[in-house]
Amino acid sequence: MTVPLPRLTTLPNGFRIVTELMPGLQSASAGIWVMAGGRHERSEQNGIAHFLEHMAFKGTKRRSALQIAEEIEDVGGYINAYTSREMTAYYARVLQGDVALALDVIGDIVLNPVFNKDDIETERHVILQEIGQALDTPDDIIFDWLQEAAYPDQSFGRTILGPSEKVSAFKSNDLKAFVAENYGPEQMILAAAGGVDHDAIVAQAEAIFGGLKAQPQKMFQSALFSGTERREIKDLEQVHFAMAFDAPGYRHADVYTAQLYSMAMGGGMSSRLFQKIREERGLCYSIFAQSGAYEDAGQITIYAGTSSDEISDLMTLTVDELKRAADDMSEAEVARARAQIKAGMLMGLESPSSRAERIARLVAIYGRVPGIDEAVAKIDAVTTADVRRYGRELCGAGAALALYGPVETAPTLEAMRQRLVA
């Protein structure tokens, strides 16, 4: 049986529609991905993209907040949104016959929010509670601090939630201004996957979004990794340790090499860091490494939590394992990492929600939807020698460090850098 390929249509104003039919599915996921996230904010706007995401569900010119929820839930679906550093997404999962309803609701909340003053105050309080909750969650806030340490004084380094003092000051006009600057048709992608009809979705998209006036893409501040150190001393049971290394963006030739390296180092129970630091030494409950890629930047991040008595051993052993892998990463380790990455990617294709998000991101990155076979071929092309070479380069690359808890005895970032290159 021939597998349907994703279809992409661009309206005259630059608005893009991408769909992927998944034969046999009676449900679908559909949404709008807007290329307007945390990094598109000016300093005084920090947190406003996320605030705007919250306000989308508070009512439009056609629907109250309750009606937005009821119209989707009356047909058994659900609707949600999220904000990342590079995107804000509004999406719904519904049955096949309710895709048009979902798109009508999503188009309404994206294009017609009312920003009622009372609703702004209510949602402001919710977001301030969310900020407070993050501050009370060490293994959550540590990553915000690590991002700030890696990219100080840059939009790419700021927290997505924003600081409470700025969130407390946003007004209706601020939200409207951000929408006017960032929600043009060329900055939006409608993506749908599952039981979908591309032509019907294009016709509906033309009716909803076709009248938007084209506007120039807004430029954003380039990301420059200039790693620093942040320590927050607090009387906690554990020290929370996070370290980041400069890594390639998603258009770089080494993006899959970095993924294989991080997977082999800390992507599962068989990984080097897990085996050495948890299984052999018992220094922590969990430790992991992960690779993240963006348009012009990326990071490999390592995280663990341990006692104040053992943080020094954990950090030095982590650095030693990074150095050792640059010399003796084995064919078996790379093959295992390769299998894990490919399996994770292919398993994700079984979900229409994951598939809709994937095709939206690929269109944003490449302007097209590369086939799975293209990604698999690139992963398979990475050799063990490539991974070792990347490991050597990482040891000499920029690094950032964040520590939270009883951290008085933890080594400094400079000490870690010197150990990496010694």
Count of distinct strands: 11
Give the neighbour order of strands across the main sheet: 1-2-6-3-5-4
Q: Which percent range describes the beta-strand content?
A: 15-25%
User: What is the CA-atom radius of gyration, in angstroms?
Assistant: 23 Å
- Form type: globular
What is the element string, with H for helices and E for strands?
EEEHHEEHHHHHEHEEHHEEHHHHHEH
> Number of helical runs?
16
Structural class: alpha+beta
Distance between the ends: 57 Å
The residue fraction in helices comes out at 40-55%
- Provide the residue-averaged pLDDT: 95
Largest sheet features = 6 strands, mixed
Poorly predicted regions are none
Give a quick precis of the structure.
The chain is an alpha+beta fold and 422 residues long.
Helix and strand layout, with pairings?
Elements (H helix, E strand, L loop, with lengths): L6 E4 L5 E6 L5 E8 L13 H8 L9 H9 L4 E6 L4 E8 L3 H13 L5 H19 L2 H13 L13 H4 L4 H11 L5 E7 L3 H12 L19 E5 L5 E9 L7 H12 L5 H9 L6 E7 L4 E9 L4 H18 L2 H18 L3 H15 L5 H10 L2 H12 L3 E7 L7 H9 L1
Parallel strand pairs: 2-6, 7-11
Antiparallel strand pairs: 1-2, 3-5, 3-6, 4-5, 8-10, 8-11, 9-10
